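pinned: reference chain
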Amino acid sequence: MDAERRRRVLIVDDEANQRSALSRMVERWGFIAETAADGQEALDKLPLFEPHAIVTDVMMPGMDGMELLSRLNEIAGAPPVIVLTAFGSMDAALTTVHEHGAFWFVEKPIRPRAFRVLLDRAVAHRRLSDDKERLERQLSSRGVLGKLIGSSPAMQKIFFLLRQAAPTHANILITGESGTGKEVVARLVHDLSPRSAGPFVAINCAALPETLIESELFGHEKGSFTGAITARQGCFELANSGTLLLDEIGEMPLALQSKLLRVLEDRRVRRLGAAREIQLDVRLLASTNRDPQKMVKEGKFREDLFYRLSVITVVLPPLRDRIEDIPALAETILAELNQKHHTRITSLDPAVLPALQRYAWPGNVRELRNLLERASVLAGEGEIRSEHLPQSLTGAEAEPPRRALGPIPSFTFNVGATLEQAERELIRITLTYTKNNRTRAAEILGINQKTLYNKLKEYGEAPDE
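pinned: its structure tokens
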């Protein structure tokens, strides 16, 4: 019963008798009930009471049920809402669910048995959402959020921003170099949002000719242009109740940018050749590998559209700025590739990781994935070794220019020192001389990196993972 009584329900109705009756009913079922006379009072009580579900009437003076739903949609992690609707208004009820984000509706007069089942499901839905959020927070603290991997400070900032922004309806602009994972971020935003059950539609603005992109976005009617033999939905219609990603938004023609701005302002689209507009509920995400603010200054991108799209801006760091994430990225990618190619790669040879972390990665995570896929196919099983990597990555030309390391130090030993002591001290002083650059130290010592690694491991001074 204690677990049951932790379930809290906020009942919103302007009729005192109705509020009292519903309150007594749900309390008999083991819920804790709180009441509000209108939407504003419900919003005021929301942070203090923290309900697991809200039950609200539609027609109320002051803030009514529809406006309350609209305000709740702007609050991250708001509880599910059950709407009380008059008998016979089924179309309005379905519109309330699909367009305004209600959990479900109950027709008046209320049938207690059906109402209790629905209330139980709403609370269970909220608890599942809470459990999912807790799990995501635990994983993100370990460097995992959805398909994003990274425990570096730069990625942890991205994780925090995505957890805050994804549950809202705000437009998001995702920027970053090619291969940094912009579409992965967009899909993650969709999966973490209340729209996750709806469609996710992505369109690459750079991949379509200018003559077709308007039709792809907004759709067309039969006969609207040469070749339009049938009517066709555009991406906005296909993404209704879900999320639309406009990839490479910076390549969109200026003339089309003004039409996109109109859609964002009105939430309506008109197919090419159509006489009427269609009301839509779509969350818009956009991505680009260019600097949108620079494009605005150059007159290549509308300033008003930029501000509409960038309510939240997510700037993805290049891989070279978070090389500490490479080990975890490699491990995750290799596990996926083992499933894809039926290989049995267990790990990276200790000499390989420094080479991966020295490389500049102009193609970012996408290039890392391609390189590991090639290496895993060549290796087949066991470790990925240096010979499985391209020469451009392992050769001397892949290393950055070496700076002068200063005068070479010397050291002496007293008679009686063991060979092991001399070897250990020689390795230590060489690593100090190279500023802990193990690749350079191995070259100076005349051994390979694996031997150096094994020696350090033997002495209990293995490199940090």
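why pinned: The chain has four domains: 2-131, 156-317, 320-398, 405-465. Residues 405-465 form a domain with the Arc Repressor Mutant, subunit A fold (CATH 1.10.10.60).
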